[in-house]
Design a protein that fits this description.
Layout (H helix, E strand, L loop, with lengths): L3 E6 L1 H18 L5 E7 L3 H8 L6 E9 L12 E3 L10 E9 L3 H11 L5 E10 L11 E6 L4 E2 L15 E5 L3
Helix pairs in contact: 1-2
Bound molecules: guanosine-5'-monophosphate.
Length: about 180
């Protein structure tokens, strides 16, 4: 049996919402240097669209965080990589994530980035999944709230597949 994909958020709706988020970010960051810290790999498509709509100057950098491996369920352990070389002291930082689910990844990244003493640190996430018992994360720039289902597309994968889909889809894995 093939994996089943059901549309959740169209490319058109994403485009409109990304432009709104970028306008909000631009309006909020007219003063100090802004750094977008993009979480690899799932946030890359979102970040690429978002940054092309931000009107104020900014620099970008990347971090890695892994908790899922090849599975569709969180392992509960978050490994943060590549944060040591970030140059963000005194910068206004926005952490750009694809999806906040249990909140563990965002929490671990926030703790890791705070050590560098940025002037401000906010979270921008395309999606916020509503999961019972999740760690609360303050998402200042949020694209969409979604139900507790596994999603792919627009950069988000299942075992490295489906990142190329232009919209967001719910995935039911075959087997
Ligand atoms: P959290 O630590 O909040 O549970 O999970 C955050 C990370 O897990 C996301 O950045 C993403 O990489 C992955 N993740 C969580 N839910 C989903 C989902 O529904 N689909 C995909 N493709 N990845 C997810």
């Amino acid at each position: 049996m093939a994996d089943r994909l059901r549309p959740l958020i169209s490319a058109r709706r994403i485009k409109k919402r990304v432009a709104e988020l970028a306008a909000q970010i631009s309006a909020d960051h007219t003063d100090a240097p802004l750094t977008l810290v993009i979480v690899l790999k799932g946030a890359t498509v979102f970040a690429a669209d978002l940054m092309r709509r931000i009107a104020t100057p900014f620099v970008i950098d990347f971090v890695r965080a892994s908790s899922y491996g090849q599975a569709a369920r969180s392992s509960g352990q978050v490994i943060v990589e590549d944060e040591a070389r970030l140059d963000i002291a005194g910068h206004r930082v926005i952490l750009v994530e694809d999806i906040v689910d249990t909140g563990l990844t965002a929490g671990a990244l926030i703790t890791a980035l705070r050590r560098f003493e940025p002037a401000s640190l906010d979270v921008c996430a395309l999606l916020h999944k509503h999961v019972a018992g999740a760690a609360p994360v303050d998402i200042r720039y949020k694209g969409f709230d979604i139900p507790d289902e596994f999603v792919v597309g627009y950069g988000m994968d299942y075992a490295e597949r489906y990142r190329n889909l232009p919209g967001v889809y719910r995935l039911t894995v075959a087997g």
